[in-house]
Amino acid sequence: MSTDNKHFILGVFDDEDVLMHAIPEVRNAGVRIHEVYSPYPIHGIDDLLSYKRSKLPKAAFMFGFLGLSCAVTMMVWMLGFDWPMNIGGKPNIPLTDFVPISFECTVLFSAFGMVGTFLIASNLFPWSNPVIFDKRITDDKFVIAVDMGKNKLSKNEISNLLKSKGATEVNEKEI
Amino acid sequence: MSENTKTYWRGIEELNNTPEFAAHANNEFADNPDFNLDGGNTYRRDFLKVMGFGIAAATLAACETPVRKAIPYLNKPEDIDPTIPNYYSSTYAEGGDYCSIIVKTREGRPIKIEGNKNSSISGGGLSARVGASVLSLYDKERYRSPKISGKNSTWEDIDTLIITKLQDFALAGKQLRIVTNTILSPSLYSALAGFVAKYPNTKVITYDANSASALLEANKLSFGTTVLPSYDFSKANIIVSLSCDFLGTWFAPVEHSNQYVKGRKLSNTKKQMSRHYQFESILSLTGSNADFRTSIKPSQEGIVVANLYNLLADKAGAPKIEVGELKDINNLSKAANDLWNAKGSSLVVSGSNDTNVQIIINSINTLLGNYGNTLSLGTPSYYKKGDDNTMNSFVDELVSGSISGVIFLNANPVYNHPMGAKIKNAISKLELSVSTADRPDETNVLCTYLTPDHHYLESWSDAEIKKGYFSLGQPTISPLFKTRQILDSILTWSGNTTDAYSYITNYWKNNIYSLQTTYQSFQSFWDNTLHDGVFELKNTNAELSFNFNIASVTESINSNYKAASQDIEYILYEKVGMGTGSQANNPWLQEFPEPVSKACWDNYASVSQKFAKEKDLSQGDIIKIDTKNGQTLNLPVLIQPGQASNTIAIAIGYGREVAGKAAIGVGKNVYPLVNTTDNKSKYFGVVSAITKTSENRTIAQTQTHHTLMGRPVVQESTLKEYLKNPEAGRYKPLIKTNQGDKKPEDITMWKTEGLETHNYKNHAWGLIVDLNSCTGCGSCVISCQAENNIPVVGRQEVINRREMHWIRIDRYYSSDADPEDKSLMGYRNMEDPSDNPKVIFQPVMCQHCNNAPCETVCPVLATTHSTEGLNQMTYNRCVGTRYCSNNCPFKVRRFNWFSYYTNTKFAEINPMMDDLGRMVLNPDVTVRARGVIEKCSMCVQRIQLGKLQAKLERRRPIDGEIETACSQSCPADALVFGDMNDPESRISKALADENKERAYHMLEEINVKPSVSYLTKIRNV
Amino acid sequence: MHISSHVRPPLITGGKTLHDITHDISSRVEDMPNKKWLAAFTVSALVLAYGLYCLYRTLWFGIGEWGLNKTVGWAWDITNFVWWIGIGHAGTLISAILMLFRQKWRTSINRAAEAMTIFAVICAASFILAHMGRPWLAYWPLPLPNAFGSLWVNFNSPLVWDVFAISTYFSVSCVFWYLGMIPDLATIRDRAVNPISRFIYGSLSFGWTGGAKDWSRYESVALILAGLSTPLVLSVHTIVSMDFATSVIPGWHTTIFPPYFVAGAIFSGFAMVLTLMIVTRAVYNLEDYITIEHIEYMNKVIILTGCIVGTAYITEFFIAWYSGVEYESYCFINRATGPYWWAYWSMMTCNVISPQLLWIKKIRRSIAATFVVSIIVNIGMWFERFVIIVSSLHRDYLPSSWAMFFPTYVDAGVYLNSFGLFFTLFFLFAKFLPVVNMAEVKAIVKSSSEKISSTQSSPSHVH
Questions:
Q1: Which residues are C68's β-sheet partners?
Q2: In this complex, do A87 and B864 lie within 8 Å of one another by their Cβ atoms?
Q3: In contact, B838 and A64? CB cutoff 8 Å
Q4: Would you state the pLDDT for residue C286?
Q5: B853 touches A: beta carbon within 8 Å
């Protein structure tokens, strides 16, 4: 086998709970898990895999703030400075009238900003071709993927470990 | 040109002597550029020709003409240039309608009629009909050349044929008649005299569609002179009118409105006003302005007049007339007392066409010593000369076949004479039948020879309206078609070779020039008169003495009238817009809402509310009316409060059969319903039966809710109250706040952090509408339509409530319900007008609010406020969301639902749809595209023009030199336009002093701060 | 993890396993369209065709083809606009607000509801376009530098607020909807047999793998979007209501409008969702996913919102009388007793009285009854907007301008057009995209599907 090929061992589980029990034990056994795949989000799994909390909320806030300031600047500049005129005898900068649009822009910017960030972070694009370890993941299987390249334990040790923790089957995949 | 010593460039064309110019230079008015507009529909090319000609005409009509023939009103000859309008004074005279006018021309095209302030008669005012007459010039139905039995011909041919005929007649002694309506032109009269001298077997027959023959005869019998008196309503403190619509449709409505309103105006300096009683069967424009109004049946008129006479005779100790005493006629004795107390400063008029009634009226005015004060035979007026007797005998002769030839001088008796049917059959038997009408009508389609007249805006004319009051008319455009003005025709046929222009000048040189001493040379007299439009010698002769045995009328009064009759009666009346129907093919007038009923595009059977209830008729039901004199017609019902019960009123002037697309099929012709008693046309009669049919026809009305619902949008009071407190009737809303009651204008969310509302540094344009002066005549509506290129939308679109008028006159009826009762039933009752309601007219145009709700909501800033306080509409920015219109509390905004100038749906009614009609458009005002909002701009184009003028002369605009179309044409001077920043302007003075207590804004409670103020209506009750 | 009380009846019936779910939902997309679908689709396409003809007349000849006049400048056009926008709100509400409240029952309906939102907003937009006098200039209300120099738009105008609110609402809803669909699209991708659909769904699914890290990001994004959409959906109808509330017209100028409109929106939206779901579940036999429970929950929301709008109607009347404003009080008297009384009273019956039936459990749990009520409520809400717009305009300040509004066949046709558009889009969606959010359903099935919850799996359960 060529060196640049990555070698994965996949523990396939049928049940969420079994998986959840298996993950900590596998990790305690000193196995470095590449990633766990599931057909639906499992709450608490990121703690088991000790993932850091995502910074997306902060991003959302920053984008929202950007939207707000853009909106206000735009309206004040357009009506107040670029072309002031007498509209129904109102002052040129009627701040109260600017509230709705400011709010909408805030939401618009933060929603799009955040989703954009997410797609980039998770590299989700129409043209991206992902590594699909097992086609049943999006159906009803849960998969623990272990990257042999990053593990000292031998193939058998890992597959046995996975089996013993409830994996219904253990497959190997090369990329 | 030859006698022109000065040499001017006739504009740029002569300077660089274009072939076009050279072509036109030598053919003046005599003939016209030969563009083929025949065959009805004109093509773009023809239109371009017309335009091309238009420009040339600008140089000729405008540059050359003034020097030799006419003096431009404002501009000196040399500074003619495109885009700058020229104004010419001229004369409108049609039937009883006379008006001295200023014609606004652009590039040689007359585009608008305005009032001429130099005339003491029309005093700068217009009537709707006069204002609209400019559109008739561009009527595509007009004849484009003379015709012999329907085929186009040339003037040479037709003249030779006619003249030979005439000569044969003279030799064979065959009888010839010239049938005409009232002619005011003295020179035309002398020409006709010449004609009669040449062909002695000729008689000139004068009749009027809406006849005043009885009044003439009455004056003959009681004063020995067959003329109309001239009235002065401004001098009358008490006015009693018996079925006389002197503000709307009697003769001289403009003059009379003008005088009447002088007596009605109020201000801090003039605190008394005339009192007006009206006794009538229909709710006329005049009646709706009266302080006291009583509805009577037409069959009572004579008795009522006689009773009024008797009441006064009592006081005067004069012989009485033996007629039944009327007890139940409201206000009659009150009127009599007021009249007696106002001897010498009162006026009694009647619209009746019954000689005896008019004689009684004469003697009443004599009893009251009004002759010489409020009416005068010393200065007789000539508005109507029609004589029913001669006309009727003419019809008999015609039918009997004793007449061989008739020349119809713009008269259309087949349509507008009661015996039209007889005349119709007789014409075909005539050897010679000539009509000079300039467009197809019921009479001339039967005539062999058509010698179409010019439109009056194409011809020279003069008029003597009253003794010593002369008026000149000049052409404002070269003739569009191969037509010839009747004066020329008459002269030609009587073998006189002088042309109309020189004939008139000669006439004036010989007959009128000598009457004055001001001018040393005839030329200067002529030029100045032409410039002013009028020449008035204000010297009157002695009054004549009344000399008639009043008792002799008793019998006929008793036989012709009943104190109380159970019959259903019909009354025929004129509508303010349509008149006698001569301008029926004028879409502006067809769409002009009748001031009182607010209905247009139709005539209908008006009935009282009571009558409708009894006969279970609802608006729009078609009823079959059979009259005693054997006529039958089906008409839709219009429920008209104020109408005398058991009467049906129908307007004349409708049901044209030959007139043009806009007129045909509109309403029914009711001239055949006119009766004749004592040889006088009688405009009422008895209905033998009415039957409700199953059909239904919606009547197009521009207003369908008629009462005020207890809302203070019109604020009124009585003279008594006003004298106690000038603020009487004012409504001053207060808003409850946590700091107590506040005026609406003191409440705003924008006063914070020094954000003040905008103020106007230069001008602040505004308008005052005096509800006390406005008679509701609606001349402003037409004037606005002409000035602002307002499309005509037709009957169906009016029914859809989409009329486009920028200024409307709201008409409200009073209701018997208690305006304070805001309960459910209370509101229900407020919706029903009284049976004899008080009426109020309120002109409403864009109020140019300084806190305009429309501006706030427009998403694209298509409507914003100008630095001069105008609410501006930017058509090309408008995307048409109609939000502004929804948010307008006054609903003055109009939306272009269709492309009115291209959508074939409007081809037959909208003048903008054909090339000829487009010539009337005002180049200064955009024709609005489909899908945009439009509205009153306070004639911003006129404001700009005035400011430009002032700027060129390095001065501020002078108050009064800038006027909106509506204020310019108002015969009542009810609208005052001006700069509210100029303390010396009329408007500022009125608001600051003369009328400040009466001035109010509509809907003060919503604090939109309009620039239009209204002055409270005061009734003298 | 899942706090699942077994007191509650299961949300997903028929003992579905994860695979069953995948199969049931995906096969709708994979199989050939069934007869019912074809019939439904054809009908809506035909309606759309007629509607387009009427739309053509409007656009070609002008708004004059409608029944509007100088006094009533808006009628069916804006009625329909507000009505559709209102309907749209339920979708966002169900997916966003219910998500924030962790309402599990939403999962099997939120996809379709969101789709409904988007299509409803499209329909609403079609009226914004059609009601313009010059629709070809529809982009002018955007603050773009333009040919007329830098002439900007009027930020005072509620219509410009609308432009921002609705475009924001539309785009955010689309994002929310699509994001939620990515994992399901991946499922379909992975089941796809022929390369074309694999490629299409492959690119549509943005290369989703279902990794734990992605899931956790995905969840927080979904949560924040929900957090953003909630005020957004409220703001949109608030702003729509300001079209009227900020005006000076009696009957429009009312501060109660924002909450009142929002409640009305939820009210009509839920009704529409019910209508649609009852149809879809019949067409697609999704009885196990859209159960009586779902229907009952939604019915409860309808009772609540129905009572809110009812209260609003009465409050309006009270204030009209209490304010003592001449024009205001007349406006309301006229609403109830004037020429348009019938519209007012059909509104009252449909919106205030008919929902009260749902207090009865039998009715609440009967599909047929619910279906009828949901339709009635939608009719009622249409009348509500009609009453607010037309009965206020047709008799405003000056009696001289009072007029009546009579619709033309084109008015009706343009309304039909929006139905055609809506259902055509909806049926296309139902055919080519997963109508139920599989991932979310799978996530709750554990706790709420009978079979699995009964046999709690254990480590011993290994083969």
A1: none
A2: yes
A3: no
A4: 75
A5: yes
